[in-house]
């Protein structure tokens, strides 16, 4: 599977996830499929950092798309979660993840893992969709890029810890213990399945769709929003 095929796969799974969130929130299959998208996008942030010739332009593109996407993102997901939703979109997490590995790689500090932790905490307090998990996920994809087995173990551990934190958070906010038996409460674990297509990524570029994701992300949110408000 080349990069073009893997990116298209991730975009399709993300699209299905968002369709499910807005139109079919009770259908868990959409959420399970959608969990595959984010790790793949995180993988390509690490891949992009390692391969791009101009890291400043790469970071700037992500930031611009994050800013452009914020309005369609918040308008769309307020349809599902209410008008009080305050959340920054996923591209901000990808942007901060890129900055994190860039600083980690560039600053020769004795304990430069502090950089990753610091930016992960920042992402959490900024209320970014993906928050700390996205930062660490990008870091592990970068750090163990040439060792799939070690990288996979780190990602599985990260996803597992994130799921436990989510469960504790839900219990702290009054969700009854019996609710933990609902499959929907465990959907985050299905992100582990993203490691399968990543495993079969051959490192080849494929057809050039360099800017497809940048256009697709805000556009698909806008389309979903317009369809929903006109139903």
TrEMBL record:
InterPro entries (UniProt xref): TraX
Keyword presence, rRNA-binding: no
Keywords of this entry: Membrane, Transmembrane, Transmembrane helix
Top-rank taxon: Bacteria
Transmembrane stretches, start-end: 21-46, 58-74, 86-104, 116-144, 156-179, 185-202, 209-227
Keyword Nucleotide-binding applies: no
The name this protein goes by in its record: TraX family protein
Organism: Clostridium argentinense CDC 2741
């Amino acid at each position: 599977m080349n990069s073009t095929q893997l990116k298209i796969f991730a975009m399709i799974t993300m699209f299905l996830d968002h369709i499910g969130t807005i139109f079919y929130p009770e259908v868990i299959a959409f959420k399970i499929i959608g969990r595959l998208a984010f790790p793949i996008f995180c993988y390509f942030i690490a891949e992009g950092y390692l391969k791009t010739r101009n890291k400043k332009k790469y970071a700037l593109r992500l930031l611009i798309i994050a800013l452009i996407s914020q309005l369609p993102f918040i308008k769309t997901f307020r349809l599902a979660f209410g008008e009080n939703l305050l959340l920054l979109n996923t591209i901000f997490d990808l942007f901060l993840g890129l900055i994190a590995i860039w600083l980690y790689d560039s600053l020769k500090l004795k304990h430069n893992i502090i950089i990753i932790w610091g930016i992960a905490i920042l992402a959490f307090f900024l209320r970014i969709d993906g928050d700390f998990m996205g930062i660490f996920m990008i870091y592990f994809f970068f750090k163990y890029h040439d060792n799939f087995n070690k990288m996979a173990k780190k990602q599985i551990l990260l996803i597992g810890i994130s799921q436990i934190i989510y469960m504790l958070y839900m219990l702290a906010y009054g969700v009854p213990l019996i609710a933990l038996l609902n499959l929907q409460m465990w959907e985050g674990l299905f992100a582990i399945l993203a490691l399968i297509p990543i495993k079969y990524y051959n490192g080849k570029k494929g057809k050039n769709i360099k800017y497809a994701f940048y256009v697709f992300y805000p556009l698909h949110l806008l389309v979903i929003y317009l369809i929903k408000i006109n139903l």
